[in-house]
Amino acid sequence: MFSCNFEQDFCVFSNIYGVPLQFQRTRAFHLVDDYAPERDHTLNTQSGALIYVNTIGSVKDSYAQLRSTRYMPSANCKVRFYYYINSATTAGQLTVMTRTESVGYTTILWSSSKVLGEHWERQEVSLPTGQLSEILFEVKNLGDGGGGGIIALDDISFSNECQKSDSYLPYGTSTPTLQPVTTPSCGFQCKDGSCIVKEKVKTK
User: What is the pTM (predicted TM-score) of this model?
Assistant: First the structure.
């Protein structure tokens, strides 16, 4: 298992540059915005560290992407993390994706735009098996007419079934683009605001 609590640095994660927004690492007491977390999740203190994206003032569809180190997933490989979404209206959308090519297509595994308020929520996502992969965390401004907000992450960990790798992803056959992958329409919208993509909705 490998993990990061962001107390020292970004660990095995890094920003994808050349996109409109970036994940920032900070201590909770440095955040003065009304919608920012007062405490991190790891230490539950104002001096604890976390990473976040501030979507206030950003334009519709602007986004930030954070990628993990590469890993080889076997059966039951999972990523676990704590997330925070706070706004007076909508802070945007947090999406977890995986990809097997450095500039290839991504597969959306989970997303949520539900405003949690001053609260950290735990999430666990099962990862596809069989190919060298990397995880992408994306924060996107939905441009729903609100003023934006804060989306934060802390305590990201991979289960033992995810083997960290120093190998590189193949370049892929897709043309590189600085535009985010279009989020597919929800097949089912949960009460908590989470989206189940159409391909995973079972029909009779």
Answer: 0.82
How do 107-112 and 149-158 pair as beta strands? unpaired
For residues 120 and 154, is the Cβ–Cβ distance under 8 A?
Answer: yes
Domain that holds residue 85: 3-200
Q: Name residue, tokens 């079934």.
A: 161
Q: For 114, how many CA atoms within 13 A lie in the half-sphere containing its CB?
A: 15
Domain count, the chain: 1
pLDDT in tens, 66-117: 999 999 999 999 999 999 999 988 899 999 999 999 887 999 999 999 999 9
Locate 179 and state its tokens.
């535009």
Domain with residue 173: its CATH number is: 2.60.120.200
Q: Which residues pair with 185 in a beta bridge?
A: none
Distance CA 64, CA 91 (A): 13
Contact 57, 143 (CB under 8 A): no
What SS3 class is residue 200?
A: helix
Burial string for 14-23 (b: 16+ CB within 10 Å, else e) reads: ebeeeeebeb
